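Morning F.,

Quick status update on the modeling queue. The single chain you submitted on Monday has been processed. Sequence for confirmation:
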Amino acid sequence: MSDGLLAAIIAAGATVLTSFMQLRTSFAKEIAARARPAMTRGASHVLAILLVVMLVGAAGGGFVLAQWMDENESAAQQALVRDLRERIADLTLYKSDIERNRTELRSDVEADVWRRIGADGVVVLATAAPCRAPLAGVRAAAAPVLAAPLAAAHAAEPSFSTAADSPSPAPPAGCAESDAAPLVLCATIPVAAQLGNVDLYVRQSDPAGHWIDSRVVPGEASAKARFAAKPVELADGPATKQVCIGFAQWSDQTRVARMVVHYSL
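Structure tokens below.
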């Protein structure tokens, strides 16, 4: 029961109790007036009727007041509920807007980062061990290693491979291109990127100077080393792909191969 309704009931009860006390007093006067003349008794009857009317009116008024206060309180509660629901709907809308803006901002930032990386170039390095030629009598004929398919490239980082050491204590006569152990250099770029320039470099493991001085042309041999004629693109999930190129060197020195992949979005 609400506080307003309880107050109205208390007020109505007090009114009824007061009316009952007045009615009791009137009845006592009525009994005392029975011994009086008839005119006096008639006036007492009128007073009793008025008191009864007052009692009924007080009871009815208290009930109507309680109903009115209860309806007003219910209307106020409903208005408060509507206001709270509207505020919750506004907060939900604001939350959705914030989440959408954050997602869009994150996508824009990621795209900008990918663009900068593409402009600077994705750098991949691989170290090729010195070539060790087999004995002249057991050298097997093989096609140039750079013609091998790149479908076996399964990682973004280059792998290292070395030829087996010759079991003979005699020094080998020298490596041919068919004796070179192949490497595959792979760079990861966005799946929607358009491949641009692929710069290739080869130099010794600890040389002096800049990389620009060691740049080579794809498909052409340079200082007993060669890259494949062109890179290939391999799928690498829904968001990225790999750009791979083969490399081989048949020198007796350690070489470092470098690939820089440029792309645009």
